[in-house]
């Protein structure tokens, strides 16, 4: 009985915490649908009386949303592509071999994960400038951010590869496959879920990237939505509904993907831990 | 003569660890060879080295006369059955069976035909479209066997393929695997830690310990003439009894450290006064009347019976086991008379463990 009470208390705490976390999100959506005057109403309106769907149509044009989101997609795709191509090979090696060097490499990878982008951005900027990479600012951002997502991806992917028993690969080798063939025909299909989820998380990270884009991409036409929003914020400090509509347009696809793939994501993240 | 598989002074090191020591082994075509030994003795390492999954450090490995030290597994044309079966979970039974053929570029029609054929041999016709996780342990084991035989390889390598099955199925599969080997005229290397499996299935048994071959030969040769104390204790069930003894008389007799200090005339010659270790199998200690000549009186401490045979454990140091047929009307604390067949006595040097018989030969 006391167990049931404990459970209920814990549930209440969880709900309260979730409410605290989710309230800003809720407020964003509600505000984006309000009129200019109802935003500042006292007491605040928790549900907009007459939803202003026009807010979305207006900012779509005014704030150059298609261009910004397009740039975000380019950066996110580029980051995902580079991270997945290089990172999965790296993760595979780290999953299959065990020795002192591998341990050192793993430690280094974890260390990289700790370094904050705001610390890294200046040396990266200077380095990129000296080799002329800043001529291609989106590509430069992709490179810089890939370096940031790589450790995260490698660690997740390694867990996915470790769920594939080594004997399966050996069976394939004896059956007549080469190492590369066994990787593509046996290991990759079996680790697929974990890899896709890791790649998806990287993509979402890339979609929301801010720090590197802010310092590397000076040209307004090449900036992603995260920068676009701050650009839009400054001249529109009081147009909260427009700003929130921008924010909602930006994050809704990410949220939708998360909700739709929620189960797979959790499975993918815990697959390595449970086996 | 070219052997199907031939190892010539093969060594394997894992870093500092010396896993295989001077392994020389020649397997003619059609032979069924069992590798036995305690856990960690290097059986799997040896098998994996033959398969090419491990690189040998030195020595030569030949398959059908051709040195293959530098060939990757796929070029050795051997099939392997893993202890865990290692079936590809994302493929149907049919695709599992035909995977190797697909890699070889065998046509789809031919693959289908061979899959049906092999499925009939292993009795899995109705399960071809299932995934491995939808099969029982015994069925998975059969698929693993099928995947090996469909290839018609130069040799089969088995790594404890029956150890995940229950006892009854294991006994049945023992016969089936051997029958299959004979039917397709295969050459097989079979790893097991179960000496009964090795003795019942194999033509040639190789006993390994700590990376070294202790002895190899036919099952009966190992049983009758173990080369050392280790092999003597490893082969046979229940294990051989060991007790101290001293060479007596003119060197053709041994005095046992048993009640009454019996002296046995043996066929083995030694130096009188030499201390030896005496080995006698439980089934060679015969129960008889207490007053028979040479009968050793022993007190029973416990009795185990399987119905077909009873094992009598004796009191005192060292504990001995005596096997008798059927269920004996003997209880704990009874005194039994045991006579020992002198021709079945084994003598070993206490330090080296080497058999005195083999020392003389
Ligand atoms: N990759 C490796 N690196 C280092 N040592 C290893 C490696 N593989 C095996 N060994 C060691 O080699 C020895 C032999 O191992 P192996 O797997 O061949 O034993 P086994 O006879 O098959 O035992 P079991 O009956 O338990 O399967 C063991 O002591 C093991 O610790
Ligand atoms: Mg083993």
TrEMBL record, chain A:
It is found in: Cell membrane. GO terms for biological process: transmembrane transport. Keywords: Cell membrane, Membrane, Transmembrane, Transmembrane helix, Transport. One of its GO terms (cellular component) is plasma membrane. It is a multi-pass membrane protein. It holds the Pfam family BPD_transp_1. Belongs to the binding-protein-dependent transport system permease family. This is Carbohydrate ABC transporter permease.
TrEMBL record, chain B:
Residues 5-235 form the ABC transporter domain. The keyword Nucleotide-binding applies. Keywords: ATP-binding, Nucleotide-binding, Transport. Pfam families: ABC_tran, OB_MalK. GO terms for cellular component: ATP-binding cassette (ABC) transporter complex, substrate-binding subunit-containing. PANTHER family: BLL2173 PROTEIN, MALTODEXTRIN IMPORT ATP-BINDING PROTEIN MSMX. InterPro entries: AAA+_ATPase, ABC_transporter-like_ATP-bd, ABC_transporter-like_CS, ABC_transpr_MalK/UgpC-like, Mo/tungstate-bd_C_term_dom, NA-bd_OB-fold, OB_MalK-like, P-loop_NTPase. GO terms for molecular function: ABC-type transporter activity; ATP binding; ATP hydrolysis activity. This is sn-glycerol-3-phosphate ABC transporter ATP-binding protein UgpC. Belongs to the ABC transporter superfamily.
